[in-house]
Each structure stands twice: as C-alpha cells, then as structure tokens.
Amino acid sequence: MSETDAALTDQKPASRRGVAARREPDAVDRRLINALQGDFPVLEAPFAAVGASLGLTESEVIQRLQALLDDHVLTRFGPMFQIERMGGAFCLAAMAVPEADWQRVVDAVNACPEVAHNYRREHALNMWFVLATEAPEGIAACARRIEALTALTVHLFPKEREYFVEMKLEA
Amino acid sequence: MNLVDTAPASEAELDRRIVLATQGGLPLVPRPYAAVAERVASDEATVRARLLAMLADGRIRRMGAVPNHYAIGYTANGMSVWDVDDSVVDAVGERVGGLAFVTHCYRRPRHLPDWPYNLFAMVHAASREAALERVAEIAALIEREFQGACRRRDVLFSTGILKKTGLRIGG
Prior knowledge:
The complex is a heterodimer of chains A (171) and B (171). By secondary structure, chain A is an alpha+beta fold. Chain A contains six helices and six strands. Chain A folds into two domains: 20-70, Arc Repressor Mutant, subunit A (Orthogonal Bundle); 83-157, Alpha-Beta Plaits. Helices cover 36% and strands 20% of the residues of chain A. Helix content of chain B is 35%, strand content 26%. Chain B has helices spanning 11-22, 32-39, 44-56, 89-97, 128-145, and strands at 60-67, 76-84, 102-107, 119-125, 150-164. Chain B folds into two domains: 1-66, Arc Repressor Mutant, subunit A (Orthogonal Bundle); 76-157, Lrp/AsnC effector binding domain/regulation of amino acid metabolism (RAM) domain (Alpha-Beta Plaits, 2-Layer Sandwich). Chain B has a four-stranded antiparallel beta sheet with strand order 3-4-2-5, covered by helices on one side.
C-alpha cells in the first residue's frame, strides 16, 4: 500500500478489534437502522434529511450513528462498492483449520487487506472468508499467499452466477 | 487533507480516490460529501455527482448502514448448500433467491469428492430452529417444483464473525 493510500483508508487491524456488538439497539436506533439500509441521500446535508423523516435532529442522527458504530451494532456506514464493476473481483474461500492452530490462522488471514469478511462455521471447512481484489488475478495470488502463511489449503468458491435477492434485514 | 497537489484528476482517478476515501465509511459530519471532497482534492458538487454516477452504473450497490446481524436479532446465520442437478440449478437458484428470508444466493463450483454442493443460499433468522425451518421450506419448494433435482444438502451455521470490514483496495 502506498503512503497516500494508507493515509486515506483509516484501516484499523481487524484481528485486534472485537466485532461482537456491545449492546442491543433501542427502538429509535432500530428505526434509524431500518431507514439507513435504504438509500442514504446524496445531498449536501444528508443527516439532516434523514433526521427530518424520523423526527430527529441532524446532530442526534450523527451521534446515534457514531454510537452504533462504536458499539459494533453497525459494522459500517457508507457506500457499498461492487468491486467487480470496477474491474476487480470477489471470491468466497474456505479452509479447514485445526483447532490448535485457530488463533494463529485467524490473525494471518485477517491481516490480509483483501479479506473483507471472515466467519467461523460449523463444518470440517470451519473458516469461510471473502476476498476482494482490485484485479481478478489478485484472488489466486492472495489465496497462494494465505496458503504460504498458514500451510493450509485455501479452497476457492468463485461465484458462477448470482441470483436476485433483496438485501435488507429488518432491525 | 489533499491527496495530490497536481492538476485536477481525471474522472477515473477521481473515482478511485473517492473509493479509497470512503471504503472505510462516510465521515459522520453534517456535510460528509464536502469532507470527502476535501480529502480527494475536489469539490462537493463533483463528489456527489461522481457518487451518483457510481450508484447509477452499479459500482456502488447502495449507500447506507450495514448492521451486525447478531446485534439486530438475527443470531442464526446459516449458509445452506445444495447439490442440485446442473440442468435445473439456475431455475432453482432464481426461485430460492426470490424467497424473502434468503439474503444471498449463488451458484458456485463443486469441489469433488468432499464438496458436492453447487448452490449456496444464505438464511438469516432469530434462532437456529427458525433457520432450519426455513431451510426445510427451501427443500420442500425444490422437491415440489423440481422433483429429484436436489441430491444432498447441508447447513453451515456461523459461530462467530472474525472480520467484517468490507472491501479495502489499495493494498
């Protein structure tokens, strides 16, 4: 990563940052979350516009959002990029990680900036993660790097076809 | 913070800077797009126009909040996987993707002999039992409409989010 890019991304090491939510959202938070899963307005003062539709002030919206992010009730807030439309690629990947090696492998995998999400699942393939790279060939390169780092096989499950789904979850 | 001190960026370069500046999230300030403009050495109107262009052509899927599924009550996150006859897998996928409780649905390659599944459908629910009921609903639908097409299925529940940052280019 170049210095300019690093300065722009604000990325914290995810492996050191817990992702479990620290609290439950209250009723107002839930209304806000539901409203914000739709289209956040691309207006000069979007938080004021969202607040107006919910009976909240601009600063209440901003403070609640900040608290929801700080408490990991929300995992992010902003544009969700479709990297494939920018010439890049996403790929689901899985590994069978021995329990004794679990934390070492979590740290190694999560330290890769290409790893966008990572979940533990109940199966012999117990670690499932998504790689996102700026160029399609980056997927195989990243998988090989993770294999070299962990001495485990990375199974790639590229998307062959995406079926239509509605992405929102009611809070 | 200005990224560059040179002449105005090309549209493609500006878009890339906007991606880098917002992939970690939108600034939580009253005029977030003005804040982004400052970071990418542009102006607010141009940044908003570029974001709308990226929304229109699909480079941005949507703008808004990504909730932690667990925090908003969806504690059971089951990745259902299906071994569906290749001749009907796309028809099955369209049907399953259309179900309200399925949040992602993809066709992916099998990894024989250990992984015979070619259709993935993510199911979110408030409990494991509820998720399993929904998986049973999917199975019943497939059997009713595509008799004999599904040979085997499994559900991989997640037991922990290890990382969820979304994509990070620039690495």
